């Protein structure tokens, strides 16, 4: 086995250490390579909202190899046939959107693992290469290391959160505050008391269950406060925002007349 056969992200989580990641929506291996070398613990590769096809994804996954950066991939919907090619391409975990019940959480967990505990089909042509093993040796380390991440981004999930967090095979519940606010009818963000109460309820249930808690931090101060509250997967922004912000700052400091 190679160094990549152990998920560096899972190792950090097992040690109780926080991890910082970034959403990547650009279909760019070069972007992922740069972020991985910059020191991000993980990348959230977004196939739900980003224009990323499976060929581009494969190159993006390869761009993290040789670094401690762990690639997780958000699929467009919670169905096993969308998760399967992502895992076979070498992703170290799948992020499932719009989980609304324990039954949907179970379907997500089953999509990540092989029988008898799951229903993932067998054909890890490139996943086995990621682990530095043969295809015949791949299933056990894959079941042990690959991560199932649920997005808590709908009010139905909050209502069912106590059941969702009890589902075996789920590793992380990541609260997505803006989609959650939208589900409560607030298009201007998650600062409304109703949404903040929902977030607090979800936080409490996730932490009490022993699942890892993740979320979005819009600035370093917010990230540090979330870590103090027990968050262990921190999303620190997204590639487009990082590029746009740095560009605006650069241009704003140059005297162009």
Characteristic terms for this protein:
single chain, 257 residues, alpha/beta, TIM Barrel, 8-stranded parallel beta barrel, 13 helices, globular
What does this entry look like structurally?
The protein is an alpha/beta fold. Helices cover 46% and strands 16% of the residues. It has a single domain, classed as Phosphoenolpyruvate-binding domains (TIM Barrel). It contains 13 helices and eight strands. An eight-stranded parallel barrel has the order 1-2-3-4-5-6-7-8, surrounded by eight helices. Helix 2 runs parallel beside helix 3 and helix 4 runs parallel beside helix 5. It is globular, with a radius of gyration of 18 Å.
Brief account:
With 257 residues, this protein is α/β, with parallel strands linked by helices.
Major beta-sheet overview: 8 strands, parallel, barrel
Strand order of the largest sheet: 1-2-3-4-5-6-7-8
If you consult CATH, what is the topology?
TIM Barrel
Q: Please report which band the strand proportion falls in: under 5%, 5-15%, 15-25%, 25-35%, 35-45% or over 45%.
A: 15-25%
- The number of distinct helices, counting runs of at least 4 residues, comes to 13
Overall residue-averaged pLDDT value: 96
Apparent shape = globular
The CATH homologous superfamily is named Phosphoenolpyruvate-binding domains
Q: What Rg do the Cα atoms give?
A: 18 Å
> Helix/strand-derived class?
alpha/beta
Helix content: 40-55%
Helix/strand order, N-terminal first: HEHEHEHEHHHEHHEHHEHEH
**What is the count of structural domains?**
1
What's the β-strand tally? 8
Low-confidence stretches: none
CATH architecture: Alpha-Beta Barrel
CATH class: Alpha Beta
Q: How far apart lie the N and C ends?
A: 58 Å
